[in-house]
Design a protein that fits this description.
The protein has 95 residues and is α+β, with helices and mostly antiparallel strands. The protein has a single domain, classed as GIY-YIG endonuclease, CATH 3.40.1440. The chain has four helices and three strands; from the N terminus they run ββααβαα. 39% of the residues lie in helices and 22% in strands. Strands 2-1-3 form a three-stranded antiparallel sheet, sandwiched between helices. This is GIY-YIG domain-containing protein. Pfam families: GIY-YIG. Belongs to the UPF0213 family.
């Protein structure tokens, strides 16, 4: 069975606070963020909307992509989100 790995962006609102994470179970992980079951940044700053994600089959590729994205300038991250999700819709409900 092939396992997928995801890097994802959460946002507090359009052009709001951003968070980048990685998971092998995107739906469950975003649910945990939404319900504030995860202590830390997303709970403190109310960063709950899934606005972008990418799928990988190799965990090493996902980790590398996450590390690179975290070094990006904010405007590059916003451009990446808006390319696929110009409305900043919460994609969680489409998973």
């Amino acid at each position: 069975m092939n396992k997928n790995y995801f890097i994802y962006f959460l946002a507090s609102k359009k052009n709001g606070t951003l968070y980048i994470g990685i998971s092998n179970d995107l739906k469950t992980r975003v649910y945990q963020h939404k319900k504030d079951l995860v202590e830390g940044f997303t709970k403190k700053y109310k960063v709950h909307n899934l606005v972008y994600y990418e799928v990988f089959t190799q965990v090493k590729d996902a980790i590398l992509r996450e590390k690179r994205l975290k070094k990006w300038k904010r405007k590059w991250k916003i451009k990446l989100i808006e390319k696929k999700n110009p409305e900043w819709k919460d994609l969680y409900y489409e998973l």
